[in-house]
Amino acid sequence: MRMQPNAQFDGRPIPEGSAATAIELSEASVTFGRGDRAVPALSKTTLKIADGEFVALVGPSGCGKSTILRLVSGLVQPTSGVVIVGGREVAARAMRVGMAFQNPTMLPWMTIERNIMLPLKIVEPFRSNYRRLRKTEFRDKANALLEQVGLKGFGNRYPWQLSGGMLQRANLCRALIHEPRMLLLDEPFGALDQFTREELWAILQTLWITHKPTVLLVTHDLREAGFLASRICVMSARPGRILDDSRVAYARPRTVAMTFEPDFVALNQKLRAFIEDARSAVDQGAG
Amino acid sequence: MFGIDIRQKAWSAGLIVLFFVAWELFCLMTGMSDLVLPRPSQVFVTLVQRFPVLWPHIVQTLATTMFGFVLGVAFGVALGAIIGVSKTAYDTCYPLLIGFSSIPKVAVVPIFVLWFGSGTVPAVLTALSICFFPIVVNIATGLATTEPELEDVLKALGASKLDILWNVGLPRTMPFFFASLKVAISYAFVGAVLSETVASNRGIGNVMMTASSNFNVPLVFAGLFVLAGLGVALYVVFSLIEGQVTGWATRKNDVIAT
């Protein structure tokens, strides 16, 4: 990656009160269904994320990580407790955040650049200017993003002409095109091979450094969490709670080589231990 | 790929020719009376000779078919969109729809005749009612298969249901829609002819009825050939339109770049 070291992002903890709070969950619980069939997905979770922070959520499967993302994006309402995003309580309205899932869901009948421009058709102020600017300013914007993720010249291709890794890069571009203050990623690289995944870590890191959105990343991959995040939250098994909240103090830009250093491995092992405990707690509970 | 395609077409054409030759030979060898099964050559001769008489009937059948088809598409798309978007509407309407679609349409023609008299109107309505269901089902299926992740991405941006329907749902439905059009046009054609046969004084269906009561069997078969020809022609037209509009759905077989 061509990248200048950036002293600003050294991964040190941001002192309390120095940055505005982007996301705040206070005692937020989510229960799906009612009565006997109620399934608690998240129990009394409190989490505070500062503006511009990169937070990774890790934990055993089905522990409510994705529920936190859905809470923050406004797709799900808390059953109890409060969720504040960007200084406002998340009500019935959507938060206009950028989202990306494991499945890139590019629309097969549109070119990549048209796919990336899709959020501009929805979100104001772009929406009212879409017809006028789609062939000029907006297209340039899409292609500038494509260039940043290494897909220069692929804008007029169709999704079926791209590999899985390329589609996932395009997916990141689509999540960022409308300049969201917040990027919510749900296991975005889960379906990719190891090398492509590592390549995309670096790309996502660059995107974060250039655009500085608040990022909430749900992942199963502890190396991924350590490489990308400035903070890692470990969640317990369902119903989820936050067990541990660690800072990752590595200078940026980080490299894949860093993930093999002893203290990175130690951090990984510490997180592993938490998740293993959470998993065995479930097994005992079930037995 | 191209070579296989040509060979495939040659086989198909060969089979058609073989079918007619076998038919002709069968009639010649068994000395079959043309009151029972005329030879294809006789049918062709009748077709050519009687074409000026047949022509207005062809136009009539084609017009009723197309009219019923257009109305069927309009209703089908509207209803399909409603039940495809809303799960509640889907669950509520489906049993009734299945009930309607399982009624044999021949049974409905007398009712249409009772209401509207014989002629063009019942033919149009029969065509409509028979071609309507494949469209409803396909539109609803197309809309219901929108990826939930993409829906979440758009909802998180503040997209309304209408935004999602317009940008994602409807375009995604297009391959299903055009596939259903091919089926629906054939159905509409069947419906129109059916109604003409039962209650009309115009159209190919009526010509065949009249001819058979006069024991003009070659003319009955000429009518059959015309119907087959029209059916294939309509199918081809809609296949071509489908290929033009929804090429993206089948283009996966082409070269994958990089």
Write a structural description.
Chain A has two domains: 1-12 and 19-97 and 183-205 and 214-287, P-loop containing nucleotide triphosphate hydrolases (Rossmann fold); 103-179, no CATH class. Chain A is 36% helix and 22% strand. Chain A is built from nine helices and ten strands. The termini of chain A are far apart. In chain A, strand 9 (231-235) and strand 10 (242-247) form a beta hairpin. In chain A, helix 6 packs parallel to helix 7. With 287 residues, chain A is an alpha/beta fold. The model of chain A is unreliable at 1-17 (pLDDT under 50). Chain A has helices at 65-73, 112-116, 118-122, 126-133, 137-148, 164-176, 194-211, 222-228, 262-286, and strands at residues 21-32, 39-50, 54-58, 80-85, 88-89, 98-101, 182-186, 214-218, 231-235, 242-247. The relative contact order of chain A is 0.18. Chain B has 258 residues and is an all-alpha fold. In chain B, helix 8 (161-198) packs antiparallel against helix 10 and helix 9 (204-213) runs antiparallel to helix 10 (217-245). Chain B is globular.
The geometry of chain B reads as globular
The CATH class assignment of chain B is Mainly Alpha
CATH topology of the largest domain in chain A, by name, is Rossmann fold
What is the distance, rounded to the nearest whole angstrom, between the alpha carbons of the first and last residues of chain B?
21 Å
What class do helices, strands and sheet pairing of chain B give? mainly alpha
Mean pLDDT of chain A: 81
The CATH superfamily name of chain B is MetI-like
Instruction: Write the CATH fold name of chain B.
Output: MetI-like fold
How much is the average pLDDT of chain B?
Answer: 85
User: How much strand content do the residues of chain B show?
Assistant: under 5%
Radius of gyration of chain B equals: 23 Å
Number of domains of chain A: 2
Q: What order do the SSEs of chain A take from the amino end to the carboxyl end, as H and E? A: EEEHEEEHHHHHEHEHEEH
Largest interface: A-B, 33 and 25 residues
| Oligomeric state of this protein | heterodimer
